[in-house]
């Protein structure tokens, strides 16, 4: 009977060690994932800002503002029109 109690106590201690080790690994993984996501987000925002700055520079340098405005208006009309048509069809 004492052997069974001793065996159960050892099994319980082993389970507790495994759970603590798993919790520590998950905490490390969570920190690593958070750092990787922050780096990814920084890169994406930087690329987005640079691409928008390049687009504005090109449009203003070549004086394509009216053509760009017409293109954007056309895309808005096309998108709205297609949504309207497809909403009636489906």
Give an account of the 3D structure:
- It is a single chain.
- The protein has one domain.
- The chain is elongated and about 90 Å long.
- The model has no long low-confidence stretch (mean pLDDT about 90).
- About 95% of the residues lie in helices and about 0% in strands.
- With about 90 residues, it is an all-alpha fold.
- The protein has two helices and no strands.
Number of domains: 1
Give the helix/strand class.
mainly alpha
Kindly state the percentage of residues in helix. Answer: over 70%
Tally of contiguous helical segments: 2
Round the Cα radius of gyration to an integer and report it. Answer: 30 Å
**Unreliable segments of 5+ consecutive residues:** none
**CA-CA gap between termini:** 73 Å
Main beta-sheet strand count, sense and barrel state? none
Task: Give the overall silhouette.
Answer: elongated
**Average pLDDT reading:** 90
**How many strand units?**
0
Subunit arrangement of the protein: single chain
Order of helices and strands: HH
Strand content: under 5%
